[in-house]
Amino acid sequence: MKTDPVSRAEELRRNLVIKEHLLAVDFSGTLQGKDTSKVIELMPNLRDGKLLYRTKINIKEIDPFASKEYGVEFFDTRTKTDAEIEEKVKSADFDFPLWFKHSKGFRMQDILDYNSPFIVQVAGCNFHDGTESGGCWYCFVDDISNDGLASKGKSYVSAQEVLESMVSAQSKLRRNYEQKNFTYNMKVLRISGGEPTIALDWILNLFREADGKRLGIVGQFDTNLSTGHVLENFKRRGIFDKRILEQLAEYPVKVLAAVKGTDDDNLQSNVQASATISSQKDSLIQLVKAGLDIYPQMYNPNPKTLDSFLAEMDKAVENFSLRAHIGPIKLYGPMVKRLGLEAKAKGIDAEKFIDSKMAEWKSNYARACEILNNYLEERYKIGYKKTTRADVRLSVLNS
């Protein structure tokens, strides 16, 4: 039976935030930690030394260390014009650095500052049922990191600890980049997951403290667009302030809104939960209405229903399709383990099963990019990734 994401979110809340402390993932010994620390090491919490923070170098080509590690041609931003840098970044798979284009103090020449966020990860996902192979099939998070249990592999952390640890990491990384004659000041604080919207009160407090300390950082949090009903319930019960989303929108915080399907079957197959397109759409509208800066990122959309899905979303949210990106699915350690367990349960060869799933996802990605490009050219006379998403405004349309 598929997980009910609403009741699961309410269940997870009991452990995820206790006395203004968030249950965060400790990346020590995790497959995810190994996958994401090849260039920049996992970063410690200053209070206890636990490795609660990681980063993700979004665009490898513009980073002097990552380009070498991953064997890609280095794009030296120090020798490029603002227009050349913007063109390079907006065409990338993960254009996250440009989300902050209109934020106070942003300079295109400082794009590296926005390319590698300081990430704290909420240790529970409401698509995950707590089993070894729960949640999204293509999730790159270890299953134990998503079960929401206060156990080994997690740690409770305060907003102040996160900020102090980030300032320490900024200093260390700045010195590393100076050795290659690059100026670098990590600017982005990202709350990933798991499902961060279950802990919105902690997130709001985090950015309030950051603003009060005048740290000059900007923010991002992620959502799987399944918790619209949860947020309304938490407001009614007094867990969240009734205007919590509007209060968050006062800060320079961007939202990665993960669109996990383009029809109910596609969505539920991807996430192993009883989520619906209707709840996904309603959750998105709630965030946009509050004034938050939303960036839809689609994962494994169904090519057969993508075109009609885009048309329907554009009727509800102006410029949805212009803001949308399609995220490529890459094979990470936790995915290998999860798919391997599924293959074992089915009694089939794990390697062949993983290869077939990756081939399916790769094909869907290529077809979906082509469909989105054709849709945009027909509707807006501009192709996919030809706009800078930060220049496009979203607004909720009257139905």
Overview of this protein structure:
The protein is α/β, with parallel strands linked by helices. It has one domain: Aldolase class I (TIM Barrel), CATH 3.20.20.70. Helix content is 41%, strand content 13%. The protein is built from 14 helices and twelve strands. It has helices spanning 5-16, 31-36, 64-70, 82-90, 159-178, 200-212, 228-236, 244-248, 264-271, 277-289, 303-316, 320-323, 333-346, 350-380, and strands at residues 17-18, 21-25, 53-54, 118-121, 154-158, 188-192, 218-223, 253-259, 293-299, 317-318, 325-327, 395-396. The strands form three sheets. Strands 3-4-6-7-8-9-11 form a seven-stranded mixed β-sheet. α13 crosses α14 (350-380). It is globular, with a radius of gyration of 20 Å. The mean pLDDT is 96.
Classified in CATH, the superfamily is Aldolase class I
Helix content: 40-55%
Strand order of the largest sheet: 3-4-6-7-8-9-11
CATH architecture: Alpha-Beta Barrel
Q: Could you please say which CATH topology applies here?
A: TIM Barrel
Unreliable stretches covering 5 or more consecutive residues:
none
Class based on secondary structure composition and strand pairing: alpha/beta
Measured by DSSP, the beta-strand proportion falls in: 5-15%
Number of helices: 14
